[in-house]
Design goal:
This protein has about 350 residues and is an alpha/beta fold. The protein is built from seven helices and twelve strands.
C-alpha cells in the first residue's frame, strides 16, 4: 500500500493546513487502538463528585459510535438541559475532553462527547476484501471484511456530528431548542460546517480552529497533485485505506483519504451560520495563520459572533496552561446563548 507524504507547508498550500490533534501526538500513541490510550476506556472512568456520567451508543450510517454523557448530579432526572456536543480534533478521542466536560457539567450543562467512526471506542467502517456474491432475497451474505480505522475523512466526520445531534435532539434529557456544539483544532472547522447546515445548533464555540476556505480562483497548491494521484489509486483499486494511525502529515496521527481534504472548505460555510459563534484563537498560533481561519470565519458568520485571542500561548496551550480559561470562555458563551 502506498501513502502520499506531504509536509504541513504543502498542506497549507493546498488550503487545509492547520489540521491538528486535540493533544500533541507521539509515535507511540495511536488513538485508533484503545490499547495505547493514556486516558482509559469509559468502563475504567469514574466521574468526580457532583457529575453524573453514562455512555451511549449512537448509530451513524450503520456504524455504532461511542458517546459519553456528563450531567450535573443536582439536575432532576426528568429535566431537559441545554446540551453541548463536543468531539476531538485530528487523531484524538472523546476521553481527551473529559476534564472539559466535567467543568461544563458543573456549570449546569449536559455534555455529550463522542468518538468518530474508526476512533476510540467507536465501531469501524468495514469493506469487503473480495467480490460481493449474488445477493439472496434477504440481502444477507457471509464474507470477509476489513475494519477501516484511524484515518481522517471530514465528510464522514461531519455525518457523525449530524447523527449525534439527531440522537441528542430525541433524547429525553436534552432540550432540543438549546443545543450547542464545541470543536477544537480540526473539529473547529467541523462545527462551523455543522452549524451552517443544521439550524438546531443555536450556539457554537470553535477553539484554535482550522477553518480552511477554497483558494481564490480555484487554483490548487503544490500538494494537490499528490492528493489527486492517491485518490486515483484508490478509485482504480490499486491502493487500500492507510494503516490505522498512519503518520503522513507531520506528527499528526491518522492519514487523510485521497483528495478529500482538497474539497474540505468549512470557511465557505461560515456565511450560512446564524448560530451565535465564539472563536477562540491562540495569539502565537504556530500551525497556521489565524487570519484566514478563525479571524475570517468570525467576520463571515451571520449570527452574533465574538473573537477572543488567548495571549502568550501557541496552539497546544489551549489544552495546557490555558485550558480552564478556554473552557470558561465557552461556558460564558453558552450561558449567554443557550440559557
Amino acid at each position: 500500500m502506498t501513502l502520499f507524504r506531504i509536509s504541513v507547508i504543502g498542506l497549507a498550500a493546498a488550503a487545509f493546513a492547520g489540521a491538528a490533534l486535540a493533544q500533541p501526538a507521539t509515535p507511540r500513541r495511536n488513538p485508533a487502538d484503545p490499547a495505547t490510550w493514556t486516558t482509559g476506556r469509559a468502563a475504567e472512568y469514574a466521574a468526580p463528585a457532583g457529575v453524573a456520567f453514562r455512555t451511549a451508543r449512537i448509530v451513524s450510517e450503520g456504524v455504532p459510535l461511542h458517546a459519553e454523557v456528563f450531567r450535573p448530579e443536582t439536575a432532576p432526572a426528568g429535566q431537559r438541559l441545554p446540551t453541548i456536543v463536543m468531539a476531538h480534533g485530528w487523531g484524538g478521542v472523546a476521553a481527551s475532553f473529559r476534564a472539559d466536560a466535567v467543568q461544563m457539567a458543573r456549570a449546569g450543562f449536559q455534555v455529550v462527547t463522542f468518538d468518530y467512526r474508526g476512533w476510540g471506542e467507536s465501531g469501524s467502517r468495514v469493506v469487503l476484501t473480495g467480490a460481493e456474491p449474488a445477493l439472496p432475497a434477504n440481502r444477507r451474505f457471509t464474507g470477509e471484511v476489513e475494519a477501516v480505522r484511524g484515518y481522517v475523512d471530514p465528510t464522514e466526520q461531519a455525518e457523525d456530528w449530524f447523527n449525534v445531534i439527531n440522537w441528542a435532539a430525541a433524547d429525553p434529557t436534552v432540550d432540543p431548542a438549546r443545543i450547542g456544539v464545541r470543536g477544537s483544532s480540526f473539529s473547529g472547522g467541523l462545527v462551523v460546517h455543522v452549524a451552517a447546515h443544521d439550524p438546531r445548533v443555536k450556539a457554537l464555540v470553535a477553539q484554535v480552529p482550522s477553518i480552511p476556505s477554497r483558494p481564490p480562483g480555484g487554483v490548487e497548491g503544490p500538494a494537490a497533485a499528490a492528493a489527486h494521484a492517491q485518490a486515483a489509486r484508490l478509485a482504480r483499486g490499486e491502493a487500500r485505506y492507510p494503516e490505522p494511525g498512519a503518520q503522513v502529515v507531520g506528527a499528526l496521527i491518522g492519514a487523510p483519504i485521497g483528495d478529500k481534504l482538497l474539497r474540505w472548505a468549512p470557511g465557505d460555510d461560515a456565511p450560512f451560520v446564524t448560530a451565535a459563534a465564539l472563536f477562540v484563537v491562540a495569539e502565537q498560533e504556530e500551525l497556521f495563520d489565524n487570519g484566514p481561519h478563525g479571524v475570517l470565519a468570525s467576520e463571515r458568520v451571520k449570527g452574533p459572533s465574538k473573537l477572543v485571542s488567548l495571549p502568550g500561548i501557541k496552539h497546544y496551550g489551549v489544552y495546557g496552561e490555558k485550558r480552564e480559561e478556554a473552557v470558561n470562555l465557552a461556558i460564558d458563551w453558552f450561558r449567554q446563548h443557550l440559557k
